[in-house]
Amino acid sequence: MLSKWKNLLEKLSAIEDLEEEEIAEILDAQDPELEKELFQLADQKRKKYVGDEVHLRGLIEFSNFCRKNCLYCGLRKDNKTLKRFRMSPEEIFSVAERAHRLGIQTIVLQSGEDLHYDAKTLAELIWKIKKLGVAVTLSVGEREEEEYIIWREAGADRFLLKQETFDRELFSKLHPDDDFDQRLRCQQKLMEIGFQTGSGNIVGLPWQTTKHLAHDIKMFQKMDFDMIGIGPFIPHPSTPLGQHHTDTQLKLKLTLKTVALTRILTKNAHIPATTALGTLVAGGRELALRCGANVLMPNLTPLAYRSSYEIYPGKICIQENWGACIPCMKKMVEKMGRKVATNPGHSLKNRSRVHS
Ligand code: SF4
């Protein structure tokens, strides 16, 4: 068995690709030596394709209202225990301005699927933030194509729309209001419109197998996303999946292996060390940075709202003073012998999308 895994790692190192079944075999393997070698290989490929710089993307979670009911998410419409909030455009802009003054080069505007903010309101906000000279990433879910176009024209550079799983059946079990093909069509449209686009998945979901994860990784590679977010499933007690607890160490290893394999197969995609990993275990983000990740997302949501953006419980960095995440992350990066990027960290994919 050991020699079989060794062969797979050698193949992975040489051609930076594997078949779906082979990826699933690596994900299934419970061998510390294999894991160590996989993580080292992913770290080498990270260095080769994206270098030592770590990009800080300043996250502003501006509304926790959501029209949908995804089974795993604490923001789901039917969670009546959550205190809901919305920030005004003026308030959001003022946070972006302060973040820019602290050296942040990318502002990520994230919310539940909240139609309260129409296309024009968000476009005006994007336009104002862009004048600061930063990159803008949107993460506001599925909307009409015309709205995506308006936001792109207003200057938004990137759009994150995670698929969460590329398995059609699992997707429909988890998303009572969503259509698998429609989500993919949205991704396609975002790419055509010229956004740098991000996808991603959740690792450790109920009903999920390593075959599903292997398929996700191959889809990340095939669709050639600019950014890929991979986080562990952390059950929220006020959701239908609240009781689905699995072994933390197994979930950690599976998430890190997914990050590592994604780095090797997608080469130069931007991959964050997610806050969810840092929540799952202390030092989780550092572990991800050591096996393929090259992005961190300091939480810049005002303290008054931060704890209410509760997709999953126990999130780290909820009580820190506003802006404290930035020096903390810089320290983390420097301690690892890496450096914080001083550029906006646009996509490294070789295509003709306009980068502002
Ligand atoms: S995952 Fe997104 S769309 Fe689904 S309930 Fe949560 S915030 Fe809403």
Automatic annotation (TrEMBL):
Organism: Thermatribacter velox
UniProtKB keywords: Iron, Iron-sulfur, Metal-binding, S-adenosyl-L-methionine
Protein name listed in UniProt: [FeFe] hydrogenase H-cluster radical SAM maturase HydE
Originating gene: hydE
Domain Radical SAM core: 52-274
Cofactor(s) the protein needs: [4Fe-4S] cluster
Alphabetical list of InterPro entries matching this protein: Aldolase_TIM, Elp3/MiaA/NifB-like_rSAM, FeFe-hyd_HydE_rSAM, HydE/PylB-like, rSAM, rSAM_sf
Pfam families linked to this entry: Radical_SAM (PF04055)
CDD domains named among the record's database cross-references: Radical_SAM
Protein origin, superkingdom: Bacteria
